[in-house]
Design goal:
By secondary structure, the protein is of the alpha/beta class. The chain folds into two domains: 1-89 and 180-268, Rossmann fold, CATH 3.40.50.300; 101-178, no CATH class. Helices cover 39% and strands 23% of the residues. It is built from eleven helices and ten strands. The strands form two sheets. It has a six-stranded mixed β-sheet with strand order 6-7-8-3-9-10, with helices on both faces. Strand 7 (182-186), helix 7 (194-211) and strand 8 (214-218) form a beta-alpha-beta unit. The radius of gyration is 19 Å and the shape is globular. It starts with 11 loop residues before the first strand and ends with a helix. Mean pLDDT is 88; it is low at 1-7 and 262-268.
């Protein structure tokens, strides 16, 4: 397996150790281990059914592997529920958009701040003191995201009425609403045209640079992967077959065979 060390010697944010996951006797992840470093953008690639989304689900707590552990900032979080991991600073987008179609963009973004609100029903009803101060703070945080993702013109639009590319952007905004330390992006550019992909790639790089957020992204567009990722990990039938910087991965014969395709390599 091709392996490239992290040259910056940055601390490990998340460590996946010997993750093994199966459903009905079918192995989805087979003894997968990898460290994810502070402020890096790790791309997770592989053919359909390789276990990419399952790996993200293990990190976020939607799946619990039969073996292995997930560590976040030195803490074993394998036993924690998704909401507990969210409160630690882990957020995600979904391959299939999971938004409140009947609510506005602003309301969808605010919904992701719900677990961060500490005032009670009475305070909210009176709209005084702590409730008012917290609401203002949450709205300010959301306004930063609206500016970052250029959502100003659609802030009051009902999400269900928006075109697909904009809904994907709102989905990213909702994942950012909690100001996560670790962001999991499950095919954020799937179904987009080339212009929409360029915009999304730009937003992701802005998040990395401005917010210093550590990210894992699942993406099938190899041009995008090579352009924006610091490091790439490759899964094939639940096995981690390669890991390294883009320059190393693109020439790895195992990756070419499993993902890029022998025909493509021969055409070169």
């Amino acid at each position: 397996m091709a392996v490239q060390a992290n040259s910056a010697k940055k601390p490990v944010v998340t460590s996946l150790q010997n993750l093994t996951l199966s459903f009905g006797g079918v192995a989805v992840l087979d003894d997968v281990s990898i460290d994810i470093f502070d402020e890096e953008l790790l791309a997770l690639i592989g053919p359909n059914g390789a276990g990419k989304t399952s790996l993200i689900n293990c990190i976020s707590g939607f799946y619990h592997p039969q073996k292995g552990n997930v560590f976040f900032q030195g803490q074993n979080i394998s036993h924690l529920k998704p909401v507990q991991r969210f409160k630690l600073g882990i957020s995600r987008t979904f391959q299939n958009i999971e938004l409140y179609d009947g609510l506005t963009v602003l309301d969808n973004l605010m919904s992701a701040r719900h677990n961060m609100m500490s005032y009670g029903v009475i305070s909210a009803g009176l709209w005084f003191g702590k409730a008012r101060r917290e609401e203002i703070e949450h709205r300010e945080a959301i306004e930063d995201i609206i500016d970052l993702l250029e959502l100003e013109s659609i802030r009051k639009s009902v999400v269900g009425s928006l075109p697909y590319g904009l809904r994907k952007r709102v989905d990213l905004g909702r994942a950012l609403a909690s100001r996560p330390k670790f962001l999991l992006l499950d095919e954020p550019m799937a179904g987009m045209n080339s212009e929409e992909k360029e915009d999304m790639a730009r937003f992701i790089l802005d998040i990395k640079e401005l917010w210093k957020t550590t990210m894992v992204i699942i993406e099938h567009d190899m041009g995008v992967v090579m352009d924006i990722s610091d490091r790439i990990a490759v899964l094939d039938f639940g096995l981690m077959i390669a890991e390294g910087v883009p320059e190393v991965i693109k020439d790895d014969p195992n990756v070419i065979r499993a993902y890029l395709g022998l025909e493509e390599q021969e055409a070169k």
